[in-house]
Amino acid sequence: MLPQTLQKKTLIFAFLVISTSLTFSQNTRSDSNEFWKHVRFGGGIGLSFGDGFFSGTLAPSAIYEFNPQFALGIGLNGTYNSRKNFFKSTIFGGSLIALFNPIQEIQLSAELEELNVQRNWEDATGIADENYWYPALFMGVGYRTQNVAFGIRYDVLYDRDKSIYADPWAPFVRVYF
Fold first, then answer.
1. Which SS3 state, helix, strand or coil, does residue 147 take?
2. Cβ neighbours, 10 Å, residue 2
3. Contacts (Cβ under 8 Å, ≥6 apart) of 15
4. What CATH code would you report for 39-175?
């Protein structure tokens, strides 16, 4: 069950997306088709395991390309981690992303991510379970070729004690269709 604040945020987000879609759909059929020609879908999938550790991530996203240089989008993130006899964690949240291509091959990005982190430690560790919200603001630069971009991003809000990431620097690969 999602926390009540996350449920409210999800409902507000869904309302905004549906309202925006309905607003655009009020136009003629050709205008509606023109809107969807600028929408790109993509995201990420991650899987890691070994020596009693398992991690799986699913992160779908969508962007709207205003022109060849600028796009805005939204994304969702769901991650499950576990280490045998140590901890289990579930992470859910969303993100807003802005992409700017000053030239076709270079992509600059800003991504605001808000994640709910729930960590359950095994009894033997003596560490209390945790449930908190963690924000991240990534600034990135990448090389882009057609619908694929890869590069590096930096979390300017990085907090070593609360972040789900081991380091503020993180490589990325983005694919949008």
1. coil
2. 11
3. none
4. 2.40.160
